[in-house]
Amino acid sequence: MEKEKYYISTAIAYTSGIPHIGNTYEAILADSIARYKRLKGYDVYFQTGTDEHGEKIELKAKDASKSPKEFVDEIANEIKNIWDLMHVSYDKFVRTTDPIHEQAVQKIFQKMYDKGDIYLGEYSGLYCTPCESFWTESQLVDGKCPDCGREVTLKKEEAYFFKLSKYQKRLEELFENNTTFLKPESRRNEMLNNFIKPGLQDLCVSRTSFTWGIKVPFNDKHVIYVWLDALTNYITNLGYSVDNVSDEFKKYWPADLHLIGKDIVRFHSIYWPAFLWSLDLELPHQIFGHPWLLSNNDKIGKSKGNAIYASDLVEKYGVDAVRYYVLHEIPYANDGNITYELLEERYNSDLANILGNLVNRTLAMSKKYFNSEVSNPKVHESVDDNLIVYANSLLKIVDNKMNEYKISEALDDIFELLRRSNKYIDETCPWVLAKDETKADRLKTVLYNLLESIRISAVLLQPFMNETSEKIFKMLNTKNTSFDTLEFGNLETNITLNEAEILFNRIDNK
Ligand SMILES: [Zn+2]
How far apart are CA 273 and CA 237, in angstroms? Predict the structure, then answer.
């Protein structure tokens, strides 16, 4: 049977600077979903990459005495390195400066123009000449330019517009009828009531104030608005072109999930559907606007001086501890918080104590009592039921959470099995059983149940902490690592465990 496809994307990262852990979170989150879907048997296409055009980048490059292309080449490379460092298993890393994308965007612009969805008009706004920026009335500070404080003047400029107003009714219907298109629910209400219902104005989709962008194909004074350029990355890199579409595009489009930050929901849920309708293409199945990771409950930013970078955290705690922290600490709809102190607390309580200790204690007892040989004589007692029943239901529990992208809760559910296993050690007291020769088979069974619970946890932890799961599989000497093996009792018998290794060293700062 052919595998069902699943296309997931992150937003493309803006190459104006190196992403901090708050930006990196999105790639890790998408990765955990992509890995989960692969383990579930889907044919996954996972796309991420960089957004490289626009005035801000042109200015930053100038400040750094570099050409814009040199500047974005460096940053894009660094972003890719961070994604790789965090074990982000993308299928394609795309860049908006790739020629294939640039050519496809020009054709898209041309098609929308030929169709009458893009027209030449006049943009009028409050303009600050030294800053070369338009402002709206509400952006002004004391009636003056918010950037430099100078007087602004009313200025008119030739510009191309996209007929967003034409799609007003269709957008309203989309939001009214399709309750799962945009998640979480709060974002859907916000878009519908604050943006769509009050009325959509046509969107200015070209700029003449800078040159670093994709040129309008029939008027090279204009560059194409960076969002029209950026959003189309989801189709151009799959091989969509106005006059020709690839097999890959036919297979994977529409996307199943665009995972994005909550701050860019408007672009993805209002502009993007309108652009796709204009091209007569299907809409993505779902857009999920994830919350933010804050530091000391404040937005993370370079200018705020509170930026924390993934590479520094990884050096100190390892990749999986960082992945676990960000995935666990950001709830479904609320912002999460990161500080070094909080990360270390969570590291010690969950990774070192609950997971690391369980694995070490269990392997140490197996070595001490049975020379690390695994067997299962099945001397069952009723105390085992709680553990086994929970372990057997865990895939279903986790699956329900993952289908709603409640990653943090899915992790809690997996750790619940580890918690119960630690409790099971206290309940069964293997060291007491070891003193009584007639209890040898019961002791073997108890240790088997513990090892099997560890294996099941590790199988389910793969999407989130792949490296740790691999280490556990190696210690257990097991080949049963797929989701098909999740039924309790699939850990091989007549195998010998490998040497235990410390998974997470406790952090002691005293
Ligand atoms: Zn100004």
Answer: 18
